[in-house]
Write a structure and sequence with these properties.
- 12% of the residues lie in helices and 30% in strands.
- The chain is of the alpha+beta class.
- It has a single domain, classed as Roll (Ubiquitin-like (UB roll)), CATH 3.10.20.
- The strands form two sheets. The chain has a four-stranded mixed sheet with strand order 2-1-6-5, covered by helices on one side.
Length: 124
């Protein structure tokens, strides 16, 4: 029997949050990587509010550019992400979230990750 993951808030300081550089739309890219395997699952956009909500809840929250709304990964699909660590890069303009992935995967297409279409491979 698989145990249901538990949300764990991530400690973050105002100083750390002030280091994040958002683009002209107020967004920063967040790369989501699976704990244990190191597999990159997806990339999504965060604004300041979704970053703070992610840290406070221990679940991934993003900003949907197409729907212009916040979304918590997995609330409709059941494919939730539980943040195990979070960091920002040397320039402060990209986030890395290490998560425990629940359910069938991260991609809205049904694939386990969003990077399932390699270049250089041709069909037969």
């Amino acid at each position: 029997m698989t145990q249901t993951p538990v949300s764990q808030p991530i400690a973050v300081t105002k100083e750390q949050l002030s280091q994040i550089i958002y683009n002209s739309d107020g967004l920063v890219p967040a790369i989501v990587q699976e704990e244990g395997t190191g597999q990159v699952l997806m990339m999504a956009w965060m604004n300041e509010a979704s970053l703070k909500e992610t840290m406070a809840t221990g679940r991934t929250w993003f900003w949907s550019r197409s729907r212009q709304e916040y979304w918590c990964k997995g609330e409709t699909s059941g494919d939730r992400q539980y943040v195990r660590s979070a960091s920002y890069d040397c320039d402060g303009d990209t986030l890395l979230l290490i998560v425990e992935q629940e359910g069938k995967g991260a991609c809205h297409t049904g694939e386990y990750n969003c990077f399932f279409r390699p270049f250089g491979v041709t069909g037969e």
